[in-house]
Design goal:
280 residues, eight-stranded mixed β-sheet, 8 helices, 8 strands
Protein backbone atom coordinates (compact mmCIF):
# COMPACT_ATOMS: atom_id res chain seq x y z
CA UNK A 1 0.00 0.00 0.00
CA UNK A 2 2.77 2.44 0.94
CA UNK A 3 4.64 1.67 -2.26
CA UNK A 4 1.50 2.35 -4.29
CA UNK A 5 1.02 5.71 -2.56
CA UNK A 6 4.65 6.61 -3.26
CA UNK A 7 4.17 5.78 -6.91
CA UNK A 8 0.96 7.79 -7.18
CA UNK A 9 2.59 10.83 -5.56
CA UNK A 10 5.51 10.54 -7.96
CA UNK A 11 3.24 10.36 -10.98
CA UNK A 12 1.22 13.38 -9.81
CA UNK A 13 4.41 15.39 -9.34
CA UNK A 14 5.68 14.28 -12.75
CA UNK A 15 2.43 15.38 -14.38
CA UNK A 16 2.78 18.74 -12.66
CA UNK A 17 6.31 19.18 -14.01
CA UNK A 18 5.20 18.36 -17.55
CA UNK A 19 2.27 20.78 -17.31
CA UNK A 20 4.54 23.50 -15.92
CA UNK A 21 7.04 22.96 -18.72
CA UNK A 22 4.32 23.15 -21.35
CA UNK A 23 3.04 26.45 -19.96
CA UNK A 24 6.55 27.89 -19.88
CA UNK A 25 7.32 26.83 -23.44
CA UNK A 26 4.05 28.19 -24.80
CA UNK A 27 3.86 31.40 -22.78
CA UNK A 28 7.44 32.38 -21.99
CA UNK A 29 9.76 30.91 -24.60
CA UNK A 30 8.67 33.20 -27.44
CA UNK A 31 9.94 36.15 -25.37
CA UNK A 32 13.11 34.50 -24.04
CA UNK A 33 16.63 34.89 -25.41
CA UNK A 34 18.42 31.60 -26.28
CA UNK A 35 20.59 31.58 -23.11
CA UNK A 36 17.50 31.90 -20.93
CA UNK A 37 15.75 29.10 -22.85
CA UNK A 38 18.80 26.94 -22.31
CA UNK A 39 18.83 27.72 -18.59
CA UNK A 40 15.15 26.86 -18.20
CA UNK A 41 15.44 23.58 -20.12
CA UNK A 42 18.44 22.58 -18.01
CA UNK A 43 16.71 23.49 -14.75
CA UNK A 44 13.51 21.66 -15.71
CA UNK A 45 15.47 18.56 -16.73
CA UNK A 46 17.32 18.56 -13.41
CA UNK A 47 13.97 18.69 -11.58
CA UNK A 48 12.67 15.69 -13.53
CA UNK A 49 15.77 13.67 -12.69
CA UNK A 50 15.53 14.63 -9.02
CA UNK A 51 11.84 13.71 -8.95
CA UNK A 52 12.68 10.11 -9.77
CA UNK A 53 15.69 9.97 -7.48
CA UNK A 54 18.16 10.06 -10.35
CA UNK A 55 21.66 11.47 -9.84
CA UNK A 56 23.68 12.59 -12.83
CA UNK A 57 27.42 11.99 -13.22
CA UNK A 58 29.25 13.32 -16.27
CA UNK A 59 32.71 12.15 -17.30
CA UNK A 60 34.84 12.32 -20.41
CA UNK A 61 35.94 14.84 -23.02
CA UNK A 62 34.19 18.19 -22.77
CA UNK A 63 34.52 21.71 -24.15
CA UNK A 64 34.13 25.24 -22.79
CA UNK A 65 32.73 27.85 -22.89
CA UNK A 66 30.85 27.79 -26.20
CA UNK A 67 31.14 24.32 -27.75
CA UNK A 68 30.93 24.15 -31.51
CA UNK A 69 27.88 22.31 -32.83
CA UNK A 70 28.36 18.55 -32.66
CA UNK A 71 26.51 15.49 -33.83
CA UNK A 72 26.11 13.76 -30.50
CA UNK A 73 25.66 10.00 -30.77
CA UNK A 74 24.42 7.92 -27.82
CA UNK A 75 23.22 4.46 -26.96
CA UNK A 76 19.55 4.42 -26.05
CA UNK A 77 18.19 2.96 -22.81
CA UNK A 78 15.26 5.15 -21.80
CA UNK A 79 13.28 8.31 -22.45
CA UNK A 80 15.32 9.58 -19.50
CA UNK A 81 18.38 9.66 -21.78
CA UNK A 82 16.97 12.80 -23.39
CA UNK A 83 16.29 14.46 -20.03
CA UNK A 84 19.80 13.69 -18.78
CA UNK A 85 21.50 15.05 -21.90
CA UNK A 86 19.24 18.12 -21.88
CA UNK A 87 20.36 18.79 -18.30
CA UNK A 88 23.96 19.34 -19.43
CA UNK A 89 23.89 20.30 -23.11
CA UNK A 90 22.07 22.59 -25.49
CA UNK A 91 20.94 20.12 -28.10
CA UNK A 92 18.13 19.16 -30.45
CA UNK A 93 17.05 15.52 -30.49
CA UNK A 94 15.99 13.20 -33.26
CA UNK A 95 13.16 10.87 -32.27
CA UNK A 96 10.76 8.45 -33.88
CA UNK A 97 7.50 9.90 -35.18
CA UNK A 98 5.48 8.12 -32.47
CA UNK A 99 6.95 10.38 -29.78
CA UNK A 100 5.38 13.38 -31.50
CA UNK A 101 1.99 11.77 -31.00
CA UNK A 102 2.33 11.29 -27.24
CA UNK A 103 -0.26 13.42 -25.37
CA UNK A 104 1.17 16.72 -24.09
CA UNK A 105 4.77 15.46 -24.25
CA UNK A 106 4.65 15.27 -28.04
CA UNK A 107 3.50 18.86 -28.29
CA UNK A 108 6.17 19.94 -25.82
CA UNK A 109 8.86 18.13 -27.80
CA UNK A 110 7.78 19.80 -31.05
CA UNK A 111 7.95 23.25 -29.48
CA UNK A 112 11.46 22.47 -28.22
CA UNK A 113 12.55 21.77 -31.78
CA UNK A 114 12.75 17.97 -31.71
CA UNK A 115 13.19 16.40 -35.15
CA UNK A 116 10.82 13.50 -35.81
CA UNK A 117 11.70 10.71 -38.21
CA UNK A 118 9.13 8.59 -40.01
CA UNK A 119 10.79 5.20 -40.39
CA UNK A 120 8.07 3.69 -42.57
CA UNK A 121 9.98 4.64 -45.73
CA UNK A 122 13.71 4.63 -46.39
CA UNK A 123 13.34 7.80 -48.44
CA UNK A 124 12.36 9.67 -45.27
CA UNK A 125 15.96 9.32 -44.09
CA UNK A 126 17.01 11.93 -46.66
CA UNK A 127 14.54 14.40 -45.18
CA UNK A 128 15.86 13.68 -41.69
CA UNK A 129 19.51 14.14 -42.77
CA UNK A 130 18.71 17.53 -44.26
CA UNK A 131 16.84 18.58 -41.11
CA UNK A 132 19.77 17.57 -38.88
CA UNK A 133 22.26 19.32 -41.18
CA UNK A 134 20.17 22.50 -41.05
CA UNK A 135 20.25 22.57 -37.24
CA UNK A 136 24.01 21.91 -37.17
CA UNK A 137 24.58 24.67 -39.74
CA UNK A 138 22.55 27.03 -37.55
CA UNK A 139 25.03 26.48 -34.71
CA UNK A 140 23.25 23.98 -32.46
CA UNK A 141 24.19 20.43 -31.58
CA UNK A 142 21.97 17.50 -32.49
CA UNK A 143 21.74 14.22 -30.57
CA UNK A 144 20.82 10.96 -32.27
CA UNK A 145 20.28 7.37 -31.09
CA UNK A 146 21.58 5.39 -34.06
CA UNK A 147 20.54 1.97 -32.73
CA UNK A 148 17.00 2.91 -33.74
CA UNK A 149 15.66 1.22 -30.60
CA UNK A 150 16.26 1.09 -26.85
CA UNK A 151 17.97 -1.66 -24.85
CA UNK A 152 18.79 -2.43 -21.22
CA UNK A 153 22.21 -0.91 -21.85
CA UNK A 154 24.29 -4.08 -21.62
CA UNK A 155 24.95 -4.54 -25.34
CA UNK A 156 24.59 -2.34 -28.41
CA UNK A 157 22.44 -2.92 -31.44
CA UNK A 158 24.13 -2.13 -34.79
CA UNK A 159 24.37 1.60 -35.46
CA UNK A 160 22.54 2.91 -38.52
CA UNK A 161 24.76 5.29 -40.44
CA UNK A 162 22.25 7.44 -42.35
CA UNK A 163 22.17 10.45 -40.01
CA UNK A 164 25.97 10.57 -39.76
CA UNK A 165 25.82 12.05 -43.27
CA UNK A 166 24.72 15.33 -41.67
CA UNK A 167 28.10 15.59 -39.89
CA UNK A 168 29.91 15.04 -43.18
CA UNK A 169 27.78 17.67 -44.92
CA UNK A 170 28.43 20.31 -42.25
CA UNK A 171 31.86 19.33 -40.94
CA UNK A 172 30.51 18.94 -37.42
CA UNK A 173 32.50 16.63 -35.12
CA UNK A 174 30.85 13.41 -33.99
CA UNK A 175 30.60 13.21 -30.19
CA UNK A 176 29.90 9.68 -28.85
CA UNK A 177 28.12 9.50 -25.49
CA UNK A 178 27.87 6.28 -23.47
CA UNK A 179 24.85 6.17 -21.15
CA UNK A 180 24.74 3.81 -18.19
CA UNK A 181 22.31 3.49 -15.28
CA UNK A 182 23.64 2.07 -12.03
CA UNK A 183 23.24 2.14 -8.26
CA UNK A 184 25.65 3.62 -5.73
CA UNK A 185 26.75 0.04 -5.00
CA UNK A 186 27.93 -0.26 -8.60
CA UNK A 187 25.21 -2.70 -9.70
CA UNK A 188 23.45 -2.05 -13.00
CA UNK A 189 19.96 -0.55 -12.63
CA UNK A 190 17.52 -1.95 -15.18
CA UNK A 191 14.41 -0.17 -13.90
CA UNK A 192 15.15 2.79 -16.16
CA UNK A 193 15.10 0.69 -19.34
CA UNK A 194 12.24 1.63 -21.68
CA UNK A 195 12.11 -1.42 -23.91
CA UNK A 196 9.77 -3.73 -25.80
CA UNK A 197 6.09 -2.89 -25.58
CA UNK A 198 6.41 -0.86 -22.38
CA UNK A 199 4.31 2.29 -22.34
CA UNK A 200 5.44 5.63 -20.95
CA UNK A 201 2.91 5.29 -18.12
CA UNK A 202 4.30 1.86 -17.19
CA UNK A 203 7.84 3.21 -17.20
CA UNK A 204 6.93 6.12 -14.93
CA UNK A 205 5.04 3.77 -12.60
CA UNK A 206 8.12 1.53 -12.36
CA UNK A 207 10.51 4.41 -11.73
CA UNK A 208 8.29 6.08 -9.13
CA UNK A 209 9.19 3.52 -6.45
CA UNK A 210 12.65 2.47 -7.63
CA UNK A 211 15.69 2.83 -5.40
CA UNK A 212 18.01 5.78 -6.19
CA UNK A 213 19.64 5.43 -9.60
CA UNK A 214 22.77 7.12 -10.94
CA UNK A 215 23.15 8.05 -14.60
CA UNK A 216 26.64 8.03 -16.03
CA UNK A 217 27.01 10.17 -19.14
CA UNK A 218 30.48 9.58 -20.55
CA UNK A 219 31.47 11.98 -23.33
CA UNK A 220 33.98 9.98 -25.38
CA UNK A 221 36.63 11.18 -27.80
CA UNK A 222 35.04 13.21 -30.63
CA UNK A 223 35.69 12.13 -34.23
CA UNK A 224 36.43 14.46 -37.11
CA UNK A 225 33.93 13.76 -39.89
CA UNK A 226 36.30 15.05 -42.57
CA UNK A 227 37.62 12.31 -44.82
CA UNK A 228 35.28 9.61 -43.50
CA UNK A 229 32.10 8.10 -44.85
CA UNK A 230 29.02 7.66 -42.71
CA UNK A 231 29.55 3.92 -42.17
CA UNK A 232 33.04 4.50 -40.81
CA UNK A 233 31.79 7.22 -38.47
CA UNK A 234 29.04 4.89 -37.25
CA UNK A 235 31.54 2.08 -36.62
CA UNK A 236 33.86 4.42 -34.72
CA UNK A 237 31.06 5.69 -32.48
CA UNK A 238 29.71 2.18 -31.86
CA UNK A 239 33.16 0.85 -30.94
CA UNK A 240 33.82 3.66 -28.46
CA UNK A 241 30.41 3.44 -26.78
CA UNK A 242 30.56 -0.36 -26.70
CA UNK A 243 33.98 -0.16 -25.02
CA UNK A 244 32.57 2.07 -22.30
CA UNK A 245 29.52 -0.13 -21.74
CA UNK A 246 31.77 -3.16 -21.24
CA UNK A 247 33.79 -1.25 -18.64
CA UNK A 248 32.94 -2.45 -15.10
CA UNK A 249 30.37 -0.40 -13.28
CA UNK A 250 31.93 1.97 -10.73
CA UNK A 251 31.78 0.93 -7.10
CA UNK A 252 30.42 3.14 -4.31
CA UNK A 253 31.28 6.76 -4.98
CA UNK A 254 30.25 10.28 -3.98
CA UNK A 255 27.61 11.49 -6.40
CA UNK A 256 28.07 14.83 -8.11
CA UNK A 257 25.40 16.53 -10.16
CA UNK A 258 27.26 18.44 -12.84
CA UNK A 259 25.55 21.69 -13.79
CA UNK A 260 27.50 21.61 -17.03
CA UNK A 261 29.69 19.24 -18.99
CA UNK A 262 31.73 22.23 -19.95
CA UNK A 263 35.32 22.38 -18.69
CA UNK A 264 38.15 24.55 -19.98
CA UNK A 265 39.38 23.07 -23.23
CA UNK A 266 38.83 19.54 -24.46
CA UNK A 267 39.47 17.81 -21.16
CA UNK A 268 39.39 14.23 -19.92
CA UNK A 269 37.70 14.14 -16.54
CA UNK A 270 37.75 10.40 -15.96
CA UNK A 271 41.40 9.31 -15.81
CA UNK A 272 41.05 5.53 -15.77
CA UNK A 273 44.19 4.68 -17.70
CA UNK A 274 42.32 2.29 -20.01
CA UNK A 275 42.49 3.19 -23.67
CA UNK A 276 39.44 2.99 -25.93
CA UNK A 277 39.71 1.04 -29.19
CA UNK A 278 41.09 2.58 -32.35
CA UNK A 279 38.70 2.21 -35.28
CA UNK A 280 39.62 3.11 -38.83
Amino acid sequence: MLQTLIRICGIVRAAGLVASAFVRVVALFPRCAPPEKRRQISAWSAKVLALFGLRLVTTGYTQHPEPSPRLMVANHVSWLDIIAIWAVTDSVFVAKMEVGRWPVIGGLARRLGMIFVDRSKRSNAIVAVKAVAAVLSAGRSVCIFPEGTSTEGRELQPFHGALFEAAIMTGAPVQPIAIRYFRTTGNRATEAAFTGDMTLAQSIWKLASAEPINIDLCFLTPSNAHGHDRRTLARQAQALIGWRLRDPMPGPLPILVEDSILDAGAHLLDMRGDNPPMVR
